[in-house]
Amino acid sequence: MRIDILTIFPEMFDGPFKHSILKRAQERGLVEINLINIRDYATDKHKRVDDYQYGGGSGMVMMVEPIANCIEDLKLKNTYDEIIYMSPDGKLFDQQMANRYSTFQNLMILCGHYKGIDERVREHFITKEISIGDYVLSGGELAAAVFTDAIVRLIPGVLNDETSALSDSFQDGLLSPSVYTRPYNYKSMKVPDILLSGNNKEIEKWRMEKAIERTKARRPEMIDDEEE
Description:
alpha/beta, two-stranded antiparallel sheet, Trp Operon Repressor, Chain A, elongated, Alpha/beta knot
């Protein structure tokens, strides 16, 4: 998979992309993540990428020209399955979307900033707008990092145990059940005996019951949605 991320703050990705699972995925050649600085496509000597709003109003707006120049240059070199804009008013990102995007080959992600991007970019270049939640961040970089992490970990070969992702929360429409590890007894708090029984059928039954129980208690709307 190739992921090209358009941003004016590429250094914000140093932490999440240079450690743990994303680092390993890149080292194994399973994903190529490119950080493209939109300022490199600005046309003035100051490398300006934002300006005041037409019609007045607070907040600066990212200009159409540098973004358009960047997207058009990249499209000359690659064919993209989707050009994504991380936006609070986009489609809410969920596990099913992560599963789908993990099968794509080439993605472009645009990170907005300030008051947003010139609407002409959204109308003529963006193919999908995605939100990671009903709140506003200072910019799209954190959202892009979340999106990237969620899809890359699903690529075959990224996780050492490829079955691990299949038991994540939301994969089956439920939250994950409780998990335990050593020691068995910590200050009189013991691991449920069923997990030490060796009876895989009964263990899976217990896990399903606990998953349903936790989902009903913490996210009842997930159960309600299934029943509708």
